[in-house]
Amino acid sequence: MTDLLSLLRDIQNYSQQLYDCLILEKQMLDNNQLKKLAEISSQKQTLLEQLDQLDKLRSAAAGGKNFKGFIADSKDQPLIKQWNTTRKIIASCQQQNEINGRLINKRSMINQDILSILSGRDKQADETYNAHGNQVTSTSLFNGIKA
Fold it and tell me: Where do runs of H (alpha helix) occur along the chain?
Protein backbone atom coordinates (compact mmCIF):
# COMPACT_ATOMS: atom_id res chain seq x y z
CA MET A 1 0.00 0.00 0.00
CA THR A 2 2.94 2.39 0.45
CA ASP A 3 3.60 2.17 -3.29
CA LEU A 4 0.00 3.15 -3.95
CA LEU A 5 0.23 6.00 -1.45
CA SER A 6 3.34 7.23 -3.24
CA LEU A 7 1.58 6.92 -6.60
CA LEU A 8 -1.37 8.98 -5.36
CA ARG A 9 1.03 11.62 -4.06
CA ASP A 10 2.66 11.75 -7.50
CA ILE A 11 -0.75 12.14 -9.12
CA GLN A 12 -1.59 14.92 -6.68
CA ASN A 13 1.72 16.65 -7.39
CA TYR A 14 1.27 16.57 -11.17
CA SER A 15 -2.38 17.57 -10.79
CA GLN A 16 -1.34 20.57 -8.71
CA GLN A 17 1.15 21.55 -11.41
CA LEU A 18 -1.61 21.21 -14.00
CA TYR A 19 -3.93 23.36 -11.88
CA ASP A 20 -1.23 26.04 -11.56
CA CYS A 21 -0.77 25.89 -15.32
CA LEU A 22 -4.52 26.31 -15.85
CA ILE A 23 -4.60 29.33 -13.54
CA LEU A 24 -1.71 30.85 -15.49
CA GLU A 25 -3.55 30.10 -18.73
CA LYS A 26 -6.60 31.98 -17.45
CA GLN A 27 -4.43 34.96 -16.53
CA MET A 28 -2.93 34.94 -20.03
CA LEU A 29 -6.40 34.79 -21.54
CA ASP A 30 -7.62 37.63 -19.32
CA ASN A 31 -4.60 39.77 -20.23
CA ASN A 32 -4.70 38.85 -23.93
CA GLN A 33 -1.15 37.45 -23.86
CA LEU A 34 -1.70 34.99 -26.66
CA LYS A 35 1.97 34.23 -27.41
CA LYS A 36 2.48 32.79 -23.94
CA LEU A 37 -0.53 30.51 -24.41
CA ALA A 38 1.47 28.27 -26.75
CA GLU A 39 4.07 27.68 -24.02
CA ILE A 40 1.37 26.93 -21.48
CA SER A 41 -0.33 24.57 -23.91
CA SER A 42 2.90 22.62 -24.29
CA GLN A 43 3.32 22.40 -20.52
CA LYS A 44 -0.27 21.25 -20.12
CA GLN A 45 0.22 18.55 -22.75
CA THR A 46 3.32 17.21 -21.00
CA LEU A 47 1.57 17.18 -17.63
CA LEU A 48 -1.47 15.44 -19.08
CA GLU A 49 0.70 12.74 -20.65
CA GLN A 50 2.43 12.15 -17.31
CA LEU A 51 -0.91 12.06 -15.50
CA ASP A 52 -2.27 9.59 -18.04
CA GLN A 53 0.64 7.23 -17.37
CA LEU A 54 0.19 7.55 -13.62
CA ASP A 55 -3.55 6.99 -13.94
CA LYS A 56 -2.94 3.73 -15.81
CA LEU A 57 -0.75 2.60 -12.92
CA ARG A 58 -3.45 3.65 -10.47
CA SER A 59 -6.07 1.62 -12.34
CA ALA A 60 -3.79 -1.40 -12.50
CA ALA A 61 -3.16 -1.21 -8.76
CA ALA A 62 -6.84 -1.88 -8.08
CA GLY A 63 -6.69 -5.10 -10.08
CA GLY A 64 -9.71 -4.24 -12.24
CA LYS A 65 -11.88 -3.28 -9.26
CA ASN A 66 -13.63 0.04 -8.75
CA PHE A 67 -10.81 2.21 -7.40
CA LYS A 68 -12.95 4.20 -4.98
CA GLY A 69 -14.28 0.95 -3.49
CA PHE A 70 -10.81 -0.57 -3.51
CA ILE A 71 -9.49 2.37 -1.45
CA ALA A 72 -12.45 2.31 0.94
CA ASP A 73 -12.11 -1.46 1.44
CA SER A 74 -8.44 -1.06 2.31
CA LYS A 75 -9.41 0.81 5.51
CA ASP A 76 -5.96 2.44 5.27
CA GLN A 77 -6.65 5.95 6.61
CA PRO A 78 -3.56 7.66 5.11
CA LEU A 79 -4.43 6.12 1.74
CA ILE A 80 -8.08 7.18 1.99
CA LYS A 81 -7.06 10.70 3.00
CA GLN A 82 -4.56 10.95 0.15
CA TRP A 83 -7.13 9.70 -2.36
CA ASN A 84 -9.65 12.31 -1.20
CA THR A 85 -7.05 15.08 -1.43
CA THR A 86 -5.99 13.90 -4.90
CA ARG A 87 -9.60 13.79 -6.11
CA LYS A 88 -10.18 17.36 -4.90
CA ILE A 89 -7.25 18.79 -6.88
CA ILE A 90 -8.35 16.81 -9.95
CA ALA A 91 -11.87 18.27 -9.60
CA SER A 92 -10.32 21.75 -9.35
CA CYS A 93 -8.40 21.09 -12.56
CA GLN A 94 -11.57 20.00 -14.34
CA GLN A 95 -13.45 23.07 -13.15
CA GLN A 96 -10.68 25.49 -14.15
CA ASN A 97 -10.27 23.80 -17.52
CA GLU A 98 -13.99 24.25 -18.17
CA ILE A 99 -13.76 27.95 -17.29
CA ASN A 100 -10.78 28.40 -19.62
CA GLY A 101 -12.57 26.52 -22.38
CA ARG A 102 -15.55 28.82 -22.09
CA LEU A 103 -13.28 31.86 -22.32
CA ILE A 104 -11.58 30.49 -25.41
CA ASN A 105 -14.94 29.67 -27.00
CA LYS A 106 -16.27 33.16 -26.25
CA ARG A 107 -13.17 34.76 -27.78
CA SER A 108 -13.58 32.58 -30.84
CA MET A 109 -17.17 33.74 -31.24
CA ILE A 110 -16.08 37.37 -30.88
CA ASN A 111 -13.36 36.84 -33.50
CA GLN A 112 -15.93 35.32 -35.86
CA ASP A 113 -18.19 38.34 -35.35
CA ILE A 114 -15.30 40.70 -36.10
CA LEU A 115 -14.42 38.75 -39.25
CA SER A 116 -18.05 38.90 -40.36
CA ILE A 117 -18.08 42.66 -39.96
CA LEU A 118 -14.74 43.10 -41.74
CA SER A 119 -15.81 40.86 -44.61
CA GLY A 120 -18.94 42.92 -45.17
CA ARG A 121 -21.56 40.67 -43.68
CA ASP A 122 -23.62 42.41 -41.01
CA LYS A 123 -24.38 39.20 -39.18
CA GLN A 124 -23.18 35.65 -39.13
CA ALA A 125 -24.81 33.10 -41.37
CA ASP A 126 -27.91 31.54 -39.91
CA GLU A 127 -27.42 28.08 -38.52
CA THR A 128 -30.21 25.56 -38.81
CA TYR A 129 -30.62 21.82 -38.60
CA ASN A 130 -31.65 19.55 -41.45
CA ALA A 131 -33.99 16.55 -41.27
CA HIS A 132 -31.05 14.35 -40.19
CA GLY A 133 -30.23 16.55 -37.21
CA ASN A 134 -27.02 17.89 -38.75
CA GLN A 135 -26.18 21.56 -38.42
CA VAL A 136 -26.40 23.43 -41.73
CA THR A 137 -25.05 26.90 -42.29
CA SER A 138 -26.73 29.05 -44.90
CA THR A 139 -26.00 32.54 -46.13
CA SER A 140 -29.19 32.77 -48.21
CA LEU A 141 -31.23 35.94 -47.86
CA PHE A 142 -34.34 33.77 -47.99
CA ASN A 143 -33.35 31.43 -45.18
CA GLY A 144 -36.32 30.54 -43.01
CA ILE A 145 -38.91 31.77 -45.54
CA LYS A 146 -41.38 29.08 -46.48
CA ALA A 147 -44.20 29.03 -49.03
Answer: 2-30, 34-61, 67-74, 77-118
Distance CA(105)–CA(85), nearest Å, equals: 30
All domains of the chain in start order, with CATH:
2-124 (1.20.58.300)
* Structure confidence by residue, pLDDT tens digits, 49-104: 999 999 999 999 988 889 999 999 999 999 999 999 999 999 999 999 999 999 98
Measured between alpha carbons, how far is 103 from 132 in angstroms, rounded to an integer? 31
10 Å Cβ neighbour count for 89? Answer: 18
Nearest residue to 54 via CA among 27, 25, 14: 14
Query: Which amino acid does the sequence have at 74?
Result: S
The enclosing H or E element of 127 equals strand 126-129
